UniProtKB/TrEMBL annotation:
Residues 1-43, 47-93 form the Chitin-binding type-1 domain. This is Carbohydrate-binding module family 18 protein. The keyword Cell wall biogenesis/degradation does not apply. It comes from Glonium stellatum. It comes from the Eukaryota. Keywords: Chitin-binding, Disulfide bond.
Length: 94
């Protein structure tokens, strides 16, 4: 749990504090309602890596997040059947 004086930063459960005050790394924790006073919240990829609260949407590296956690625009990054992570970017190869 997070809140009051407890933060998710460095937590084994994840670095984001959800709107319900639980730590995690998924979009439910890092997205809408994230409590930025008690951990990190989602942001745009600045180094080409995505996932764990970091999205490719709006990044200069590409709009899709691959299964390995990297942003790109090619089919290798955007294929929903194989590798795309829709919670951290688009999965439309077009």
């Amino acid at each position: 749990m997070c809140g009051n004086s407890t933060t998710c930063a460095g937590s084994a459960f994840g670095h984001c504090c959800s709107q319900y005050f639980w730590c995690g790394n998924a979009i439910d924790y890092c997205g809408i309602g994230c409590q930025s006073l008690f951990g990190s919240c989602g942001g745009v990829a600045t180094n080409g890596q995505c996932g764990n609260g970091v999205t490719c949407t709006g990044s200069t590296f590409g709009r899709c997040c691959s299964e390995y956690g990297y942003c790109g625009d090619s089919a290798d990054y955007c294929r929903t059947l194989f590798s795309c992570q829709p919670q951290w970017g688009s999965c439309d190869p077009n």
